Sequence to fold (238 residues):
Amino acid sequence: PAPPRARQPRTIRSPTTPPLLPTLHTNMASTSVAFPGSAGTWEVVRPNAEGITYDAAGATLALKPLPGSIWGTEASRVQQGFAVTSDAVNIVLCPHSPITYADQQQESATKIKRVVSVSVASEPSGHGDQAGLWLYADDTNYIKLVREGLRSSPVAAVFAVQAAGQPRVVGKTPLSSGESVMRLEIEGTVVRGIVEVDGTATVLGECELPPSSTPYRVAFAAHSGQDKWATFRNLSIA
Fold:
């Protein structure tokens, strides 16, 4: 018999709307944004109209990395000079395929792999300025793969996890290109972070999905920066 066909990545598209995102900036008073033709509703955590826009012709979301953070505990944020509360704005949540921790525990035995990727272009203005791809449950439980400015490097790919408010950097690597493909591979409760530049992929490591009663959503975010916008395009969820 013929060998089984490999699963092909599936790009989320709508035949009657732009292929990536709705025009978010037209409805920023609400945390929910309607997407005609989509099976769900896009949401924006702490929306701020000054830092988000959408180019329908190019199907590109742009986020300005406004000040704010959800890294660590309130005490650690105070030490870093951030506000006490979680104040990172414009965390954009995709409506597609929420991921629950319980379901991923069951899938650990089946070895089903999910792959999420998006192209991110950014020019970090300093340490902590970041933009990228997230698996976001809430402000205390998430995994992120971002382009970030570090003291040791003007821009690096950083793969990190935060569980119950306790953050940890899993892996990082310097970058030179202004655009990277950020890819998360999810197999059971294990998540692997991969960055691709000019066709060359680098695995930054893997970590466990933090236990959470709130489903995880694929998300985009940019924060802790100044005035250089980050762009997101070519979302793929397989």
